[in-house]
Records
---
Amino acid sequence: MFDAAARQALQERLSRLTPDTQARWGKFSAPLMVCHLTEALRMTYGDLVIPQKKMIVRFPVIKQLFVYVLPMPKGLPTARQLLARTPTVWHGEVETLRSLIDRFATMQLDHAWPAHPAFGALTGRAWGALAWKHMDHHFRQFAI
């Protein structure tokens, strides 16, 4: 997410999404997925606080594997706070997500990043990798 080309590629993929785009798996509609990604990025920046859970993925080796190596599995449970918002106006939702993607360009790697609810403490580099991986996962869900 800290790489300009990677952010631009996500923006281009987002441009191909319509409110009627059908998912290849899972329960999300395209508007709900956009809201989910928006809330996830708000969490990344510390704008949305989600309670911590004690999970095995907090262990450093497992965390590193999940963030940098393993593909994101389909059907993982997610925090209810990342599913709580109902979409409003499509173009407004998309523009909000666009601005949050671009916000990564303004963040510093040594910023005081919030703890992830499942992984615990993450570096800026890890947050960037995980945010990109999460968006890529859902964009692939909608074949974009």
---
Amino acid sequence: MMENPKVLYLIGPMGSGKSFVGKAIATKLNLPFLDLDALIEEFTNQKISQLFKDKGEANFRKIEAEMLRKHPPTSILATGGGTPCFHENMEWMNKNGITLYLRTTPGILQKRLLNEKDKRPLIAEIPDKQFLGFLENMIKTRAVFYEKAQIIYNQELSNTTVVHDILKHLRPFLFL
């Protein structure tokens, strides 16, 4: 364990592998893994898609910012794709932990997300023919926030290799 408790915040667009990578890193480092969306669902007793529908994105983002600031001090936390873009969350995460941006191409995201669009409120209604363009635009719009991460990791390898490689990148920063 670390001497100074810190959180590793995993950021990136939906489908970038934050949950997969986060769980694997947490297991390797024997730290708790948390998913911000799951914490929000538990707190509100509603699914994210229902929160978006009932309360709108602006209210969801307020709840998200509050929950971001209420997690255990030593953990691996997968954020939502939009988390860094609202309520000065990116600045807050950089001050309170280590941020790791899982940079992924729109093409990879399209392959990963196409079959689970109905589970994700921001993309559920995007027609398949417009999906790649939507992802390209989303990444371009959010890049200004994502690029503020302390570690930027380009995902070009298999998931297993990614986890091993990321652990090497983390050594000088915190856990090892």
---
Amino acid sequence: MKKYCKKEKLKKVSGILLLIFFISMFVFITDARFGYTEDKAPVDCYKDMAKTVTHISAAGLGEILKGVKNEKERVEMIRSFIKPVRFYPDKSGYFYVYDYSCFNIAHATQKDLPGKNLYDHKDVKGKFVIRELSAAAKKGGGFVEFYWVKPGSKNEFSKLGYVEPIPGTNYFIGTGVYLQ
């Protein structure tokens, strides 16, 4: 029995690593193909990239989590998956995962958020950010404009977030584009 469990866990970890590899390759190829530069990145291209990497990640995580019934193990797998992923030339692209009640499951850059319920969190303009992201995910996915702390800063910047549900779970995954 233990040998089987180790084999299954190894398969899931391998799946996560493979998914991270494919996302990294997609981002690398896309950056090179469109000639992105840090100071001259078209927002529409970044929006397309955000939508694509989120969709790939949601689908992959949904598949990987299919056979995992233990909630703690599911959360650990999600956290392991999103932790190393960064994209865009300035590395400001990262993932976050919430459940539909606005409970943070994982956040790649703000390590203090996992385990917190952000249902009542408002950005600097008074928008209930996570509520709106949750509503967009419940509709199958979409973009939401809000303000959020940019990695490497203490201030909130305008951001266009994109979220999608993770199939077979009560979670949604998202990323975004910090607007100039």
